[in-house]
């Protein structure tokens, strides 16, 4: 296990990058503590896999350093970093039994047979594979094969970090929750540093203690799932996390306050700066249908079981509101009220209000 430090990392796939637009990774400084559970979250093309490949040693960064427990490993190949990786598609030997698949990484390192047997059975029990040890891997279901792939990383006790690159993409949706829960349980038992790379917010938020959200090669926020949901530091985080995502509405800023479509909007605190683009951010969970407020027209409503999501229009702007009561009919005229404690201004994408409560 190791503390992982990324120090002033930048990477471009071009031989002579001319500017920031030529970098797949902008400057990144990051610390992951020993034994933590982390997620790299963002859409395709945001730089997640590039960063993962740099940490694993498959890619050398254009600039900056990678350190494991303070030791510079930037120039070391993967086999000298003691890293285990679990990929989107299970990496196993179909002709081998489950037992031999799990034993292979240890046998390959010359571990004695008694230790191999003890470790294989320990990990197989954790993964609920102990009843399948003598079955050929080719005869197993996709989720069991992915368990073997996970087990091949977990069976070693000399790894600095285990990295999961979209490991549940090919798993049946009904089994994803079970495997995510199992992975979380395993982390709590063995306390090895784990990094989980995904574009799926549910996977990231249910696995990780700390989530790193990336956009266009930049880390826009690092925080717990609660922090990311309750106070996004960037409009991208608000939009990307949550279903539906945060309402992002253009506004005018005057005298430390904000106005939307001519209506004054109460905020969590004063606006501390402005930019070329200023916007209000408020989650649908903090928008309610009220007797007074901003006039709107209901466009449609979706029944999600536990609550309704009402889509209302203010001019040509769309605002989503979550309500537990019955939804107004399409075309109904309503008023929308924002919870001031959960309403904030963003300037050029970044949060620009201070909390005064």
UniProtKB/TrEMBL annotation:
<protein>
    <submittedName>
        <fullName>ABC transporter ATP-binding protein</fullName>
    </submittedName>
</protein>
<keyword id="KW-0813">Transport</keyword>
<dbReference type="GO" id="GO:0016887">
    <property type="term" value="F:ATP hydrolysis activity"/>
</dbReference>
<keyword id="KW-1003">Cell membrane</keyword>
<dbReference type="InterPro" id="IPR003593">
    <property type="entry name" value="AAA+_ATPase"/>
</dbReference>
<keyword id="KW-0547">Nucleotide-binding</keyword>
<dbReference type="InterPro" id="IPR003439">
    <property type="entry name" value="ABC_transporter-like_ATP-bd"/>
</dbReference>
<feature type="domain" description="ABC transporter">
    <location>
        <begin position="4"/>
        <end position="241"/>
    </location>
</feature>
<comment type="similarity">
    <text>Belongs to the ABC transporter superfamily.</text>
</comment>
<dbReference type="InterPro" id="IPR013611">
    <property type="entry name" value="Transp-assoc_OB_typ2"/>
</dbReference>
<dbReference type="GO" id="GO:0005524">
    <property type="term" value="F:ATP binding"/>
</dbReference>
<dbReference type="GO" id="GO:0015408">
    <property type="term" value="F:ABC-type ferric iron transporter activity"/>
</dbReference>
<keyword id="KW-0067">ATP-binding</keyword>
<dbReference type="InterPro" id="IPR012340">
    <property type="entry name" value="NA-bd_OB-fold"/>
</dbReference>
<dbReference type="InterPro" id="IPR027417">
    <property type="entry name" value="P-loop_NTPase"/>
</dbReference>
<dbReference type="InterPro" id="IPR008995">
    <property type="entry name" value="Mo/tungstate-bd_C_term_dom"/>
</dbReference>
<dbReference type="Pfam" id="PF08402">
    <property type="entry name" value="TOBE_2"/>
</dbReference>
<dbReference type="GO" id="GO:0055052">
    <property type="term" value="C:ATP-binding cassette (ABC) transporter complex, substrate-binding subunit-containing"/>
</dbReference>
<dbReference type="InterPro" id="IPR015853">
    <property type="entry name" value="ABC_transpr_FbpC"/>
</dbReference>
<dbReference type="InterPro" id="IPR047641">
    <property type="entry name" value="ABC_transpr_MalK/UgpC-like"/>
</dbReference>
<keyword id="KW-0472">Membrane</keyword>
<dbReference type="Pfam" id="PF00005">
    <property type="entry name" value="ABC_tran"/>
</dbReference>
């Amino acid at each position: 296990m190791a503390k992982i430090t990324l120090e002033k990392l930048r990477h471009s796939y071009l031989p002579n990058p001319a500017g920031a637009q030529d970098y797949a990774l902008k400057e990144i400084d990051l610390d992951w503590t020993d034994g933590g559970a982390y997620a790299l979250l963002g859409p395709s093309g945001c730089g997640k896999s590039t960063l993962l490949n740099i940490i694993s040693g498959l890619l050398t960064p254009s600039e900056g350093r990678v350190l494991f427990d303070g030791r510079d490993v930037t120039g070391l190949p993967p086999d000298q970093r003691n890293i285990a990786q679990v990929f989107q598609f299970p990496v196993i030997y179909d002709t081998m039994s489950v037992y031999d698949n799990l034993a292979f990484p240890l046998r390959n390192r010359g571990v004695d047979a008694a230790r191999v047997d003890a470790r294989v059975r320990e990990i197989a029990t954790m993964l609920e594979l102990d009843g399948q040890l003598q079955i050929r891997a080719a005869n197993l279901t996709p989720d069991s094969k992915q368990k073997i792939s996970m087990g091949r990383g977990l069976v070693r006790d000399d790894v600095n970090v285990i990295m999961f690159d979209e490991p549940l993409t090919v798993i049946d949706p009904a089994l994803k929750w079970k495997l995510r829960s199992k992975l979380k349980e395993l982390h709590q038992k063995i306390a090895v540093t784990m990094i989980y790379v995904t574009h799926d917010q549910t996977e990231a938020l249910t696995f990780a203690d700390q989530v790193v959200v990336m956009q266009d090669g930049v880390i826009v926020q690092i925080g717990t799932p609660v922090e990311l949901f309750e106070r996004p530091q960037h409009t991208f985080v608000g939009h990307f996390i949550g279903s539906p995502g945060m309402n992002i509405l253009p506004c005018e800023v005057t005298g430390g306050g904000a106005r939307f479509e001519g209506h004054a909007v109460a905020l969590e605190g004063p606006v501390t700066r402005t930019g070329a683009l200023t916007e209000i951010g408020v989650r649908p969970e903090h928008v309610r249908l009220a007797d007074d407020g901003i006039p709107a027209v209901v466009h449609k409503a979706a029944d999600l079981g536990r609550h309704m999501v009402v889509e209302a229009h203010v001019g040509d702007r769309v605002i989503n509101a979550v309500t537990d009561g019955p939804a107004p009919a399409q075309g109904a005229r309503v008023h929308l009220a924002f919870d001031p404690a959960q309403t904030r201004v963003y300037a050029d994408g970044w949060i620009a209000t201070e909390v005064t409560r």
